[in-house]
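Human:
Class, as today's exercise, you are to examine the entry below, and be ready to discuss the fold:
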Amino acid sequence: MTKKTSAIPIRHVFWFGWKLVVILSVTLFSLTLLRLHRNSRSQLSSPPRRSRISNEIFEGPPKVAFLFLARRNLPLDFLWGSFFENGDVANFSIYVHSEPGFVFDESTTRSAFFYDRQLENSIEVAWGESSMIEAERLLLEAALQDPANRRFVLLSDSCVPLYNFSYIYNSLMASPKSYVDSFLDKKEARYNPKMSPVIPKNKWRKGSQWITLIRRHAEEVVDDEVIFPVFKKFCKRRPLVDDSKGKQNLKLQKQHNCIPDEHYVQTLLAMSDLEGELERRTVTYSLWNLSVTNMERKGWHPATFSYADAGPQQIKKIKDINHVYYETEYRTEWCRNNSTLIPCFLFTRKFSEGAAMRLLSEGVVGSFDASALLSTSP
């Protein structure tokens, strides 16, 4: 007699299948949460990169990209024209961010080097606002289109070179690092706690806006899509003192105060753990007017060099500076090329037209014909 095998009840099969579906669902849900957590942490720790073909192979010599941040025209174009005339055109490129619609041509500039060098996508810029950072990023983005550009120098419309083209070109190319003035901001309460956790306080840095970047760091600034939006939202300067507002100024001056262009690049590179690849100093000299009255009513700005301030002795004092002391970090930054002490500064600001003429007449950047300059004023 054959013994029959007992069949598994249908309800047991259904119950087993249902448990399997639940287990798989919980497992998939847990894996998804873990992946989201990891992605969010990586986004906070380092900005994402845009897809860009990094063209490291290029023909010809490496270039220095001179990036001018101008209000409108370039009042010192005659000096820069002489500077570029003494250089090899294969060694440099020029980009200008001016007000929207402004065109550099024979009617607006005294130097053909600036013809049509304006950005077509420029924006309105205001001091102490995030628009200043946006303009810097637009300049870097335009310059990155040329793979031969290997150094990126940000300059204002009042900057002047302290040496001839050959000296500055060789100095910039001699270092594999970027020059970014960067230090801990301990005295001023510019860090906004609302920036956390995207920007932790221990990564907050301050420094000069006038930077010189190697190509990889320029890409880091242009590709940033995480840090800049936080700056735009939470780093804003407070209104300056306005006599017409009387006692209301007391309330306005209690608002949080932050100057974006003095913190953005420094903080971004600190967030990206790139400080070891920096010379943590600027190559552009500024003489600051630290008057409290001036700061309250106009904001702290560098003093302007006049004709009388631009003589050989004054210029020599700037050229002789070979170290910078950072009080908040008790750090002395010696300016070296390998083990040799070198001058810290290659450029200076803010120069008036008279001061720039005197610099040219002293033969700092090249020969100078004053009569030709006066006859071609736009």
